[in-house]
Design goal:
The chain is an all-alpha fold. The mean pLDDT is 82.
């Protein structure tokens, strides 16, 4: 499972559909893992200012580059990087702790 997929999963609420699907198939192990991913993302992302959350959504849902996000917000690319990179780095580290070898950046 890679980082981009986890971010899309989190921001699109697709994890809820995955939980429902897994409940019908009795895959409780997957449900626990999805809930762990959600908790990790909540912990880091919900603490961010609204603009930073929106920048992450643009990056991982709309698949915009940092330069495109900067243009949209009329700010420097370094500002986008400074607002998003620390949380991305922390998320990657903690997601690796949860997923182990299943996780790739």
């Amino acid at each position: 499972m890679n980082f981009n997929f986890v971010m899309k999963l989190y921001f699109s609420d697709f994890y809820l559909k995955m939980i429902d699907r897994d409940k019908t198939r009795q895959r409780l192990r997957n449900i626990d893992k999805i809930k762990q991913l959600q908790a990790v993302c909540d912990k880091h992302i919900q603490a961010l200012p609204h603009d930073s959350i929106e920048m992450l959504k643009l990056r991982y849902i709309s698949e915009l580059t940092q330069k495109e996000i900067a243009t949209q917000y009329h700010i420097d690319v370094r500002t986008v990087r400074n607002r998003t990179s620390p949380v991305i780095k922390a998320l990657k580290a903690e997601l690796y702790d949860v997923l182990g070898d299943e996780f790739s950046c």
